[in-house]
Amino acid sequence: MSTVTLIKKLWPFVQKYRQSLIGAFILTGVGALLAQVTPLVMEYTVNTVQDILDKKKQTQQQIAWIVGGLVLVLFAKEIINLLVQLGQKFLSDRLRFRLAADLHNYSIKRMVSYHLSFFALSQNQIGKLEKRIDKGIESLTKTVKNLFVDIVPMFANALLALALMYKKNIWVGVCATLIMPLYALISREQSKRQKLIRRNIQQFREEKANTLFNLIESIFVVKSFVREEYETSRQWKLTQQLSDSEVKHHRTNYLFDGLKSIAEQLGVVMVFVVTIYFVLNQQMTVGAILLHLMLFNNVSAPVRHLHRIYDEYSEALTYAEGFFDMIENNSYLENSQSKTINHWNLVHKSFAGTFEMKDVDFVYPNGKQALKGVNLHLEAGKTTALVGLSGAGKSSAMNLLAGFYSPTRGEILLDGKPLTGYDPHWIRRNVGLVMQKNHIFSGTIEENIRYGKLEATLDEIVAAAKQASLHEQILQMPNGYQTEAKALSGGQQQRIAIARLFLKNPPIIFLDEPTASLDAITAEQIKDSIDAIKKNRTVLIISHSISQIMDADQIYVMQEGEIIGKGSHETLYEAGGLYREIIDSNARTLNIGRLAATVLG
Ligand SMILES: Nc1ncnc2c1ncn2[C@@H]1O[C@H](COP(=O)(O)OP(=O)(O)OP(=O)(O)O)[C@@H](O)[C@H]1O
């Protein structure tokens, strides 16, 4: 990313802090002027002292005036300088923290508005994203701060000092300027070598954060397979690669810093020799020696830090690129963000709830084709079931209908209109989803159920928990509805998701194995509650439970991403094939003959 691009991208965030920016620039100018005071005062003092010594008739009063004046001027300058620096730091810090908060909020806003396919990309795994956001914001805000506290003040100071040197004597100015190309050359070479190392460091850091996330997330699996050592050595390898790159980075720095120090000393010697020459030829006063050396110090200070500044800046550019790529990825933006689409839901405020998939292919970002030429019809007010072996593409089809992903080919219609023409938020507001993995947030049971309807009263929450057959168990918990939801069993967590659905009470219901983790009695209770809510609503259900499948008005059978059959339970069973195999094997698993003998007597 170039500097111009970075400024263009940052400007919308920075522009509302224009006043702080202007204030910082004014203080920078004042600071640059103040930095030249000491060399000038020193020159004046040395020359005056030399004058007095030459005349050999100094009085105590003269000495007191010189010393007092010197102390006073330098002290006053330091006080003003301190105030200027405090002002600069305050303004830049304020800008930095506000900017960090704005960038953070904006990145979260963007991220949550992306399609799920964005999160399915390997470079967007949770740990990597977290690192990219953190490092991106940190280096961007650090750059802004450095600009006002380091870069601009130092360069303003250097330019003023150089101008003064030229004004005093053109040859001294030339000497001070001569080391610049040498310095720039060394710094450029240093940065060239560092660029690749820095990229590696960034990737290793993201990878490390991601592995750590995964490790903590899968700690149960790690422990149950006694893979602690294996995981530790995986982490160790990554850390080792990272630290190798970091050592290499610093080693290169030391080498080039040494070269730059030699270049700087060369500059000092040149300025010194040329000034001595002019002093000896009586074209300059003795005070000029001190003045020129001090001014040269002001000139070389930013040059001395050039590489560090460049280094931090290049790092910021690398991270900024990753950060802006992430937050400006419009191709993954859901169309609810689009201002140009006149969403169907705004035109036709009511809807029937008929879904249709026409010749739909779907390929995940990793290249896996999950759906091939799928044709599906969910009739409004009816229940449709999706049946098939594991990995057949049932959940993928449901995710597409809910607008989480877009088809790779073909189209999906809602009430005869393309799904892409609807606001996905509106669709999801009307669809109640109970997914295979029921995600519970850190927080209480009450907060978790309330997620289905944020403004729900406690009575409504309790009613929903009762419908989900969870209320009695919640009451037995140490803190009732205030118990941490993460502490619930798998089946209880699933019922939280079902309670959310009852609370939301949507016209369309998508259920992906809603009773998979439940015991038989609770499953039956939930089935009854779901049967009650199902009436006159469009329902899509994925289930391996015969009873839930049989009840559906229409059943689709899926195999390897394709629809291989549709119809009622009876017609599909009679037709034979995969559906019959599934039902028969279900019956065998249940040992239905023996079961019937014991249950029916
Ligand atoms: N996020 C993903 N990225 C890549 N491939 C995926 C993703 N999710 C699912 N798949 C793949 O797509 C195919 C269909 O998966 P899907 O979850 O739709 O099947 P399913 O019929 O619902 O299976 P199950 O009954 O086991 O839940 C599988 O081969 C799976 O590996």
Automatic annotation (TrEMBL):
<protein>
    <submittedName>
        <fullName>ABC transporter</fullName>
    </submittedName>
</protein>
<dbReference type="GO" id="GO:0015421">
    <property type="term" value="F:ABC-type oligopeptide transporter activity"/>
</dbReference>
<feature type="transmembrane region" description="Helical">
    <location>
        <begin position="170"/>
        <end position="188"/>
    </location>
</feature>
<keyword id="KW-1003">Cell membrane</keyword>
<dbReference type="InterPro" id="IPR036640">
    <property type="entry name" value="ABC1_TM_sf"/>
</dbReference>
<dbReference type="InterPro" id="IPR027417">
    <property type="entry name" value="P-loop_NTPase"/>
</dbReference>
<dbReference type="InterPro" id="IPR003439">
    <property type="entry name" value="ABC_transporter-like_ATP-bd"/>
</dbReference>
<dbReference type="InterPro" id="IPR011527">
    <property type="entry name" value="ABC1_TM_dom"/>
</dbReference>
<dbReference type="InterPro" id="IPR039421">
    <property type="entry name" value="Type_1_exporter"/>
</dbReference>
<feature type="transmembrane region" description="Helical">
    <location>
        <begin position="147"/>
        <end position="164"/>
    </location>
</feature>
<dbReference type="InterPro" id="IPR017871">
    <property type="entry name" value="ABC_transporter-like_CS"/>
</dbReference>
<keyword id="KW-0547">Nucleotide-binding</keyword>
<dbReference type="Pfam" id="PF00664">
    <property type="entry name" value="ABC_membrane"/>
</dbReference>
<feature type="transmembrane region" description="Helical">
    <location>
        <begin position="21"/>
        <end position="42"/>
    </location>
</feature>
<dbReference type="GO" id="GO:0005886">
    <property type="term" value="C:plasma membrane"/>
</dbReference>
<feature type="domain" description="ABC transmembrane type-1">
    <location>
        <begin position="22"/>
        <end position="315"/>
    </location>
</feature>
<keyword id="KW-0813">Transport</keyword>
<dbReference type="GO" id="GO:0005524">
    <property type="term" value="F:ATP binding"/>
</dbReference>
<feature type="domain" description="ABC transporter">
    <location>
        <begin position="355"/>
        <end position="585"/>
    </location>
</feature>
<keyword id="KW-0812">Transmembrane</keyword>
<keyword id="KW-1133">Transmembrane helix</keyword>
<keyword id="KW-0472">Membrane</keyword>
<keyword id="KW-0067">ATP-binding</keyword>
<feature type="transmembrane region" description="Helical">
    <location>
        <begin position="262"/>
        <end position="280"/>
    </location>
</feature>
<dbReference type="InterPro" id="IPR003593">
    <property type="entry name" value="AAA+_ATPase"/>
</dbReference>
<dbReference type="Pfam" id="PF00005">
    <property type="entry name" value="ABC_tran"/>
</dbReference>
<feature type="transmembrane region" description="Helical">
    <location>
        <begin position="62"/>
        <end position="84"/>
    </location>
</feature>
<dbReference type="GO" id="GO:0016887">
    <property type="term" value="F:ATP hydrolysis activity"/>
</dbReference>
